[in-house]
Amino acid sequence: MKKIYIYIICAVLSFSCGVLTPLATPTPVSTSTNIPTDIPSSTPVTPTVTFTTTPTLIGQKTATPTPEFTFTPDAVASLYLLTPDTRTPAPQMTGFLSVNVSEKEFYKSGPCLPTTVKFTAQAADLGNTAHVVLFVRFKSKQSSGVTSEWTHIEMATIGAGTYLHDLTAAEMKGGLTFQEPWIQYQFVATRANTRELGRTDIFSERLSLLECKATPTPVLSPTPTVLIP
Fold first, then answer.
1. Residue 85: pLDDT above 80?
2. Consecutive H or E run containing 185
3. Fewest Cβ atoms nearer than 10 Å: which of 18, 155, 201, 220?
4. pLDDT, tens digit, for every residue of 146-189?
5. In this structure, are residues 121 and 132 in contact, taking their beta carbons and an 8 Å threshold?
6. Does residue 90 belong to any structural domain of this protein?
């Protein structure tokens, strides 16, 4: 019986201790999280390069990009300073329909040919033109461009306003001081009272006078005859 009371008392005490003693708060256990790490590969990964082939056209030139031009007043002003590549204007032919010279060069004397040059002029006013005068002079081909005095020669008419003259170097004044010069020429048309009807411009550096430099002809020596006894 005593053992029963002892058990009861121990049970009551154990229950009281359990009620009176505060329960311990459990400490959270830290959990380690494993973060996966890439394992380096022994073989490097090379990015794939894609090539696009561009066809090349043989014989085709690549277009050069044109630079942009900014409009400025200075740029416009500079355009007017350029000298255009213009052709030499045709000589004036006042009073004449046409003029013609048979040669571009002739010689002072023979045996070189030709030694004359034919001038032909067609007057415009057939009814009033009574005379056509040819003016000629020498002009040096050197840089100085020295000229002789004019020689005037009246041209012969063959009718229909056409006038002719065959010129030789001997007719011109001052030829001794010039060596292979230019021959300048001009045509003047007049009435019967010598009043001028018209004249052409001076034709310069179109006709040359040359020296005759004959080349000696080699003479073959006769072959000696050998007599065999």
1. no
2. strand 182-190
3. 220
4. 999 999 999 999 999 999 999 999 999 998 889 899 999 999 99
5. yes
6. no
Q: Which domain holds residue 144?
A: 96-210
Residue 191 confidence (pLDDT) above 80: yes
User: For the chain, how many structural domains are there in total?
Assistant: 1
Q: Is residue 193 part of a domain?
A: yes
Q: Which residues neighbour 34 within 8 Å (Cβ) at sequence distance 6 or greater? A: none
pTM for the whole thing? 0.57
Integer Cα distance of 203 and 189 in angstroms: 16
Q: Is residue 41 situated within a structural domain?
A: no
Residue at 28 is within a domain: no
- Check if the beta carbon of residue 151 is closer than 8 Å to that of residue 131: no
Instruction: Tell me the CA distances in angstroms from 66 to 62, 63, 71, one per residue in order.
Output: 12, 9, 15
CB within 8 A of 158, min separation 6: which ones?
164
The confidence score (pLDDT) of residue 145 equals 87
